[in-house]
Amino acid sequence: MDWKTSARLLFGLTLVAIGAAWLIAGGFAPVLRPVPDGAPARDLLAYGSSLILCACGAGLLWKRTATLAALVLSAFVAIWTLAFKFPFIVRAPLVEGSYQANGENWVLIAAAWVLYAELSKGSNFLSTALGVRLAYLLYGLGLIAFGLSHFFYLDLTAPLVPGWLPGSPVFWAYATGTIYAVCGVALVVGLEPRLAALGAALNITLITVLVWVPIVAAGGLSDMHLQETIVSWALTAAALVLASGSPPATAAYLSPSRRHRSARSGSRR
Asked: Is residue 265 part of a domain?
């Protein structure tokens, strides 16, 4: 089994587990929170959204249904983000948490988008080089938001750093935040995007394994820690999908004639 397939299956199983768990427990899955108390048909939205996550995750497990499942998942999370999370940015554009909350969903959208692009084999704009480039740009913006949150909310991030790591917790909070931000900027501008996607995936995976897994193992999870653990797990699965993809560099923005001229200029040098 190759890396791309393994990443797709992990992403699918993650969505199935999250969707099924919150179908049973009720309420909104952590990756979709928060939802305003006054949202219409709130209970129906909660069960319906969990069912969609579960169904899309199941669809990703079989190659025959994975293309449609990835498209539906990307569209669903995009619509959900516009309806329930983007208003945070509109209402509080200077609050970093507004972008972090949106960034979590941007990563999921980008992962589903990239899966659809690779499975559909260039059948429409979403799967063109420019379409894939836009998916990774969206991913990069999410990573930048994550990185900034480590600086803006240092008082919440540093206490989570395991005590056995050498150096101070503040150092590791800043270091992981810097990695997020640098990888995000690299993806946005198209500079070494494959390396940036791999670096971001490693960063997210290590945070999940070294921070959240021990907290779960210790027991007595608070509601906040449970939500953060589930979100981190989902982001890890999505990041591995994006790292296994083929992010195009900035040249994907150029027209064929400009790429040709650029290549000829490079050959003369």
From this structure: no
Distance CA 2, CA 8 (A): 10
Q: Cα torsion at 94, 96, 101, 102 (round to 10°)?
A: 60
Domain membership of residue 261 (yes or no) is no
User: Which structural domain, as residue segments, surrounds residue 57?
Assistant: 3-252
Say how far residue 78 (Cα) sits from the centre of its chain.
12
CA distances (Å), origin 251, targets 94, 108, 130, 198, 248: 33, 25, 9, 20, 7
What is the pTM (predicted TM-score) of this model?
A: 0.90
Q: Are 9 and 61 in contact (CB under 8 A)?
A: yes
Residue 138 inside a domain? The answer is yes
Q: Which of 261, 245, 253 is nearest to 11 (CA)?
A: 245
Q: Is the peptide bond prior to 166 cis by the omega test (within 30 degrees of 0)?
A: no
Question: Do the Cβ atoms of 247 and 136 come closer than 8 Å?
Answer: yes
3-class state of residue 128 by DSSP: coil
- Give dist(CA 188, CA 191) in Å, integer: 8
Note the pLDDT tens digit of each residue in 147-169. 999 999 999 999 999 999 999 99
Domain count, the chain: 1
Residue 212 in any domain: the answer is yes
In angstroms and rounded to an integer, the radius of gyration of the C-alpha atoms of the chain is 19
Write the pLDDT tens digit of every residue in 27-36.
Answer: 999 999 999 8
Where do runs of H (alpha helix) occur along the chain?
A: 3-25, 42-60, 63-80, 86-91, 96-120, 129-152, 154-157, 169-189, 193-207, 213-218, 223-244, 256-268
